[in-house]
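Repro:
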Amino acid sequence: MKGTVRRFSGGPSFQAPLLNISVPTTESIHFHHLMDMPLPFATDAAARLPYCHLPIMISKSFLEDGEWAGFYCTSFGSQSPHFDSPMRNIHFQVDDFGSTRHTLIIQANGVDSVGEFTLLGRMATDIGNMQFSKTYTGGTPQW
């Protein structure tokens, strides 16, 4: 997937003035390439299923391959979720020197409807949890 945007076809699209991204569907994601799925009746299937994607999806090559897009979503109580305009042109880089076996240090650059930004954060490799700080280039808000 080198040089490609991770977009998925076959689902409803999020309409934004800057980018039209289709929502992923089970038919458009090649699960067998991304996961080591346990057999349904294996004794450890329930324990392995939530983490079977991690060996591939926490790899440096997976994160740095291609161009990513994403959304920031907020939801309060029973309100319908609100999606901000898409973040796009995201290129992740894993810091080889700051990362450890249990934590990957990751940074990325991208753009959204506010402007150009940098993401700086980490991923817990045992559960795949990612936390980022988002800083805009022109001194605009920081999250």
